[in-house]
Amino acid sequence: MTTTKTYRLTAVAPDAFAETCARVLFETVKNKPDAVIGLSTGRTTGDIHRRFAALVRAHNLDVSRLTIFGLDEVTGVSRDYFGACVWMLEHECVNDLGIAPENFLMLPLTSDDWERDCDAFRAELARRGGITLLELGLGENGHIGFNQPGTPFEQRAFHGRMHDYLEARIRRETGTPDDIPLGGVTLGIADVMDAHEIMLCVNGAHKKQALTDALWGPVTTDLPATALQAHPNLRIICDTDAAPDPV
Ligand code: GLP
């Protein structure tokens, strides 16, 4: 007998995608005002975050005890670069929500001791009760955060290289010369797996294969998101363009 793994997967029309994801963030805060919510940055999530902030404002929700943190960060760039994750999250929702600086946690853009700073970041999340909900985007090659193919599933938060295409883009956009190092710092896959709940957000036909492989392909570090198959509380929200074909 063959069994097909089933998931809590919601596929919605493309124009309902961001709002559907935003509602999950909103409901999480409504049910747990001291929630610790991790956010991903990129093309997928900007609109989700703006709608999340709008929902919170429309319902006058108290977010004074809410913690928001970033899953990852590009390093070696300035804080006001529009591609820095801290800049994106501030402009997409953190400023609008009025989150106090002490409740907005980001991995640093520069460090003289990445191991120390990554450990401190993880410790602070643990001190706040761990991750209530982690919003994840999905790379076309199956990466999550800066966990590129090949990253061990046991990996904790770390600083490493960024993908070549991203590095080239950031150098172009910031005018950063080649002799100044750029990198990426991220929660590791083991940290991701410790989240109480994960919401994987995927849209667009270009992500359909990656999503299908992530959910039903062989579990392998070649496709980091396959680690999520073992998560006990995973929810997937995709649009109909990215939705895996019925299996
Ligand atoms: C980026 C980020 C991730 C993001 C993912 C998908 O490199 N480091 O946090 O979730 O890749 O990005 P996008 O939504 O732009 O496709």
Cofactors and ligands: 2-amino-2-deoxy-6-O-phosphono-alpha-D-glucopyranose
Q: Which oligomeric state applies? A: single chain
Q: How would the global form be characterised? A: globular
What does the largest sheet look like? 7 strands, parallel
Low-confidence stretches: none
The amount of beta strand, in percent, is 15-25%
Strand order of the largest sheet: 1-10-9-6-2-3-5
Keywords for this structure?
247 residues; alpha/beta; seven-stranded parallel sheet; three-stranded antiparallel sheet; 7 helices; 32% helix; globular; binds 2-amino-2-deoxy-6-O-phosphono-alpha-D-glucopyranose
Chain-wise SSE layout:
Layout: E1 8-12, H1 17-31, E2 36-39, H2 46-58, E3 67-70, E4 72-75, H3 85-97, E5 104-105, H4 114-127, E6 133-136, E7 158-160, H5 164-174, E8 183-186, H6 189-193, E9 198-202, H7 208-216, E10 234-239
Parallel strand pairs: 1-10, 2-3, 2-6, 3-5, 6-9, 9-10
Antiparallel strand pairs: 4-8, 7-8
Helix pairs in contact: 1-2, 2-3
2-amino-2-deoxy-6-O-phosphono-alpha-D-glucopyranose (GLP) binds next to loops.
Brief sketch in words of this structure:
This protein has helices at 17-31, 46-58, 85-97, 114-127, 164-174, 189-193, 208-216, and strands at residues 8-12, 36-39, 67-70, 72-75, 104-105, 133-136, 158-160, 183-186, 198-202, 234-239. By secondary structure, it is α/β, with parallel strands linked by helices.
